[in-house]
Design goal:
about 170 residues, alpha+beta, 2 domains, 6-stranded antiparallel β-sheet, 13 strands
Length: about 170
C-alpha cells in the first residue's frame, strides 16, 4: 500500500456492539489509520489510530447500538514509511475490495471486535465450528478429535517420562 490509499470493502455485516475493527493489514512500522463504516452515504461508525504500530492492529471505533447489513467499510492509511501490505483471498460471489476505487483481485479479512464476558472454554464450540468449515463432511468433529489426540499424546509422553525418571 502507498501513502493515502483508501481500501474499501462492501457487502459487510457490522455486528451490534462493535468497538474496534481490524483489517488484515500488516506493517513493520505502521502508518496512521482511519476507518469508516457506511450504509449508503451515512457514516455508521468511525475511528482512527496513530502510527508506530507493528503487525496486525485494531482501530477503536464508536460503538454501534445495533447490527447493520450491506455495509461498506473503508480504511485510509497515512504516510507509509515501511512496507505496509494488505492480505486477502478470493471473493467468491461477493463484491471485491477496492483500492482508491479500483477493484482488487479479491476480498480482505475484516474482524469486528467487541467486549464480551464469555470464557475461552465457552467459545470452544464456536471456534471449533469455524475451524471445521470447508472440511470434508461436517468438519467440526475434526477439531475435537485433534484435541483428544493431542491430550492422549501428552498423557502418554508424560507417563513415559515419569517412568524413565524412576
Amino acid at each position: 500500500m502507498r501513502s493515502g490509499d483508501t481500501v474499501c470493502q462492501a457487502g459487510e455485516v457490522l455486528p451490534r456492539g462493535t468497538t474496534a475493527i481490524r483489517f488484515a493489514l500488516g506493517s513493520a512500522y505502521g502508518p496512521t489509520l482511519a476507518i469508516k463504516a457506511y450504509q449508503g452515504d451515512q457514516v455508521l461508525t468511525e475511528g482512527s489510530r496513530g502510527n508506530e504500530w507493528v503487525g496486525p492492529t485494531a482501530v477503536s471505533v464508536t460503538p454501534v447500538k445495533r447490527a447493520f447489513s450491506n455495509v461498506k467499510v473503508c480504511v485510509t492509511v497515512g504516510t507509509v514509511t515501511e512496507g505496509t501490505n494488505l492480505s486477502g483471498g478470493p471473493a467468491e460471489h461477493r463484491p471485491v475490495a477496492t483500492n482508491n476505487g479500483r477493484p482488487l483481485p479479491g476480498r480482505t479479512r475484516i474482524e469486528y471486535l467487541r467486549p464480551g464476558s464469555k470464557s475461552w472454554l465457552a467459545l470452544a464450540p464456536s471456534i471449533a465450528d469455524h475451524m471445521g468449515l470447508g472440511r470434508a463432511g461436517n468438519g467440526t468433529w475434526i477439531v475435537f478429535l485433534l484435541m483428544a489426540l493431542m491430550a492422549a499424546i501428552v498423557a502418554i509422553t508424560s507417563r513415559t517420562l515419569l517412568a524413565d525418571l524412576k
